[in-house]
Specification:
alpha/beta
């Protein structure tokens, strides 16, 4: 019988583990618990949380109608204006389980765009994390997800840019896209 060895990196990354643990801790406290979007992309975990009474909320309208409970912001984070609108409902408690690495990207793009830089986000423009990052940008934000998009990218070369990545984006694909963009002569 062959020996089975578990890889060192098996399991969830730090940010996802933290978010999932946060939900389970909130369940123990009692009361209604909600997540804003699925806490992570993992069907088994989401199903287990549903069995324990956690409900997934998909939009701000649902939050505005809540009479009580705890709403947990998923590991992917949300746009700044979404977070602000969530806090308008004084009947609920908000727990931010955004991955610290994602929060760092939020801080970076907010700072860099406040200084006038446009932001390039390497990642899927429809992914919740990229949508959240975009929500902290005060200038122009460009999401680039493919070689073709990088090759066709065309922006003002006189503007400085800051480049960040979706945290779960493939590293080799990221490197390829950055190489393509770097050859275009932008001040990144």
């Amino acid at each position: 019988m062959p020996e089975v060895i578990t890889a060192k990196t098996a399991g969830f990354c730090f940010g996802v583990k933290r978010a999932v643990d946060t939900v389970y801790e909130e369940i123990k406290k009692g009361g209604d618990v909600y997540t804003f979007g699925e806490i992570i992309h993992n069907e088994s975990v989401v199903e287990d949380l549903e069995k324990k009474g956690v409900k997934v909320i998909e939009n701000l309208d649902e939050i505005s109608r809540l009479k009580e409970g705890t709403v947990i912001i998923r590991s992917h984070g949300v746009a700044k204006n979404v977070k602000e609108k969530m806090s308008e409902n004084r009947n609920i408690r908000i727990v931010d389980a955004t991955c610290p690495f994602v929060k760092k990207i939020h801080e970076t793009v907010e700072k860099e765009s406040s200084e006038g830089k446009d932001i390039i986000i390497i990642g899927d423009p429809d992914h919740p994390e990229v949508l959240g990052i975009t929500g902290y940008v005060k200038t122009r934000a460009y999401a680039i997800n493919s070689r073709e998009e990088a090759e066709n990218f065309n922006a003002d070369k006189d503007r400085e840019m800051c480049l960040v990545s979706q945290t779960t984006f493939n590293l080799n694909k990221f490197k390829d896209l950055v190489e393509i963009l770097s050859k275009k002569g932008y001040s990144i």
